[in-house]
Amino acid sequence: MRSGIDPSAVDTNVRPQDDLFAHVNGPWIRATPIPADRGRYGTFDVLRETAEQHVREIIEEVAAGDPQGGTVAAKVGDLYASFMDEDAVEALGAQPLAQDLERAATVSSPDEVMATSGAFGRAGILGLVLPFVNTDDRDPSRYVVYLEQAGLGLPDESYYREEQHADKRTAYVGHVERMLALAGWPEPAEAAARVMALETRLAAGHWDKVTNRDPVKTYTLLDLAGLTQLGPQIAWPAYLEGLGAPADAFDAVVVRQPDHITSVSAALAQEPVQAWRDWLAWHVVHAHAPYLASAFVEENFDFYGRTLSGVPEMRERWKRGVGLVEEALGEAVGQLYVERHFPPHAKEAMVGLVDNLVEAFRRSLSQVPWMGEDTRREALAKLGQFTPKIGYPQRWRDYGALEVRADDLLGNVRRAVAFEVDRQYAKLGGPVDRDEWFMTPQTVNAYYNPGLNEIVFPAAILQPPFFDVDADDAVNYGGIGAVIGHEVGHGFDDQGSQFDGTGTLRNWWTEQDRSAFQALADALIAQFDELETRDAPRQKVNGALTVGENIGDLGGLTIGHLAYRISLGDEPAPEIDGWTGDQRFFLGWAQVWRGAARAAEAERLLALDPHAPMDLRANAVRNLDEFHEAFGVGPGDGLWVDPAQRVRIF
C-alpha cells in the first residue's frame, strides 16, 4: 500500500522534532515559486487550480454544444462569452457606468443617499450596510435579515487608523483619484480626499475583527422602529425599496454592530452632500472595475493586487471569467463537476471517516477532565445532532429566473446580483431549507455552520493530499480526518460552543466549565501571540483573532488521531516507507499546510485572517502528547513544549 507521503519530498536535513512543516514541505517550497498572479501558493491553491481547469473545460464544452437559448447550459456559455469578449468590453470604455454615476451626481439628501445605496446594492455595489439573510441565532427555525457594517474601500477599519498602514492609505487616495478620473468624475483629486475623509469617519464606528467574533455581542434583534431609533437619520424604507426587498424585511433584523448604525446616522446628518456623491461614485467604479475596459481593470489590480498583496501579475482572463461563472451559476457548473470528478465510492469512504471522527469526539467529550457532567450531557447531545454533508447538495439550485446575454457583461453581473438578492429575501417567512449549501461542490474548502449544526465537505477537497482512497489510512486521517475534526471542533470552539445542538445561541455551560474552557483558550491565545510566521518575520500572530481556528486545528489533530486509532481496531498499524502509523498521521497533517506567501500578503493576512499562517498550523502538533511520543520529541527540540504548557482541549 502507498503511504501517501513521498519520501523523496521530505527534507532529511530538518528534523520533524524541530520543525515538522519544514521537514515535510521544505523541498517543495524551495522548488516551487509562488506564481506571479498569486499572493500565496500551497496545497489548497494547487487543488483550486485543478478544479478551476476542470470548470473551464466544462464551461467551454457546454458553450461549444450550442445549447438551446434560455437553458442553464446556454446561460453558463453566454455569461462566460460575455466576459471573454474583450474587444466588446474595451470598446464600451466607461459607458456602462454612466447611468449609475449620473444618479450618484444628483443625490441631494440623506434619504436619497440611502435609496441610491439600496439600488446600488441590488447591482453589487457596496453600501453603508451589508445585509444578508440567515437563520436567527436565537431562533433557528426562522430566517431573519442581518446587517453587517460596511462602507469601506480598504480591507478593514484598522487600515484607517494604524501607523503600519499609513503608506496604504496614501496609495489608496491616489488610486481612488485615478479611478474616478478614468470614469470622468469631476475634480477627482478633491473627490478622492473627500472619500478618504468620509471612510475614515465611518471606519471609526466599525468594530474590530476580534470583537466581531463574539456571537453574543454581535446579536441585537430589533424591529423597524427600534432600528430607526438606533439610527434616526437612516431612511430604511427608502433603502429597502431601492434594494428591491420586501417592505417588511426589517420587521425583525439582527444588527451585528449597533455602533456602526449610530455612526452612519450621524454621518448622514453632518457630512456634506458632495462627500456622499463622491463616495457613491467611487463605489460604483470600484465594484464594476473588473468588468470594464482594461484601464479600469489594470488600475484596480495595481492597488488591490500589487499594493495590498504584493502580487506582480493579474490572473489570466479565462481564470477571471471562470470565477464570474462560479459566482453567478456555481451550482449549475457544480452538477456537471460532480458527475465527472466525484466517484460514488469516494463519498462512501468519506461516510466511514466521518462516523469514526464523530465516535472519536464522543469518546473525548465523555472523558475530558475539565468538563462537568451537566455540560458534558449537553455537549454529547449537540454532537448527536450534527449533520454531515458530503460532496454535493441533494437538490440543485434553480436558475430559471436569471437572464443572461452574451453581449452584456456588466448587465449580466447586475442581474446575477439582483437574482441572488431576490432569492435571499424570498426565504423570509418560509421554512428553513436545511439542504442548502453555502459552497459549491467544486470549492476546495469546508465549513461548519453553527445555526444548522452542520459540517460540510465539498467534493473538490476530497482528493489528495487531503483524501486518497488508494492510500494508507494514517495519511487520510491526518489529512481529511483532521479537517473533519477541525470542522466538528468549530462546534465547540469559543464561538460555536455558544450554540446548542439545535443551532440556538444560548449558554448551555455551567459557569465553572465555561471558565475552565476559557482558561484553555486563553493559554492558546498566549501561545500564538508569541509566534511568528517565516513568511513575515518579526510580525507576531494575533492569538485572539485566530483562536477559533486554532482550537479547530487542535481539536482536529487530537480527534483525527483518535479516530485513526479507532479505525485500526485491535490491529497494529503497519510500518510503511520507514514510518510508523502515528508518524504518517502527523506527516499527512503537515503536507496539507504546504505553501508559502509573499511578505505583503502574509502581513495583510495577519491583520485580517482568522486562520494562523500555514507553517504555524502545521506545527500546531507541538501541543499533542501523541506527536512528542511518535517522534521522540524531547527538551531542546524546536517543537518541544513542556507537558504542563501543552494546551489540550479535547
UniProtKB/TrEMBL annotation:
<feature type="domain" description="Peptidase M13 N-terminal">
    <location>
        <begin position="16"/>
        <end position="393"/>
    </location>
</feature>
<comment type="similarity">
    <text>Belongs to the peptidase M13 family.</text>
</comment>
<dbReference type="InterPro" id="IPR042089">
    <property type="entry name" value="Peptidase_M13_dom_2"/>
</dbReference>
<protein>
    <submittedName>
        <fullName>M13 family metallopeptidase</fullName>
    </submittedName>
</protein>
<keyword id="KW-0479">Metal-binding</keyword>
<keyword id="KW-0862">Zinc</keyword>
<keyword id="KW-0378">Hydrolase</keyword>
<dbReference type="InterPro" id="IPR000718">
    <property type="entry name" value="Peptidase_M13"/>
</dbReference>
<dbReference type="Pfam" id="PF05649">
    <property type="entry name" value="Peptidase_M13_N"/>
</dbReference>
<feature type="domain" description="Peptidase M13 C-terminal">
    <location>
        <begin position="445"/>
        <end position="647"/>
    </location>
</feature>
<dbReference type="InterPro" id="IPR024079">
    <property type="entry name" value="MetalloPept_cat_dom_sf"/>
</dbReference>
<dbReference type="InterPro" id="IPR008753">
    <property type="entry name" value="Peptidase_M13_N"/>
</dbReference>
<dbReference type="Pfam" id="PF01431">
    <property type="entry name" value="Peptidase_M13"/>
</dbReference>
<dbReference type="InterPro" id="IPR018497">
    <property type="entry name" value="Peptidase_M13_C"/>
</dbReference>
<keyword id="KW-0645">Protease</keyword>
<keyword id="KW-0482">Metalloprotease</keyword>
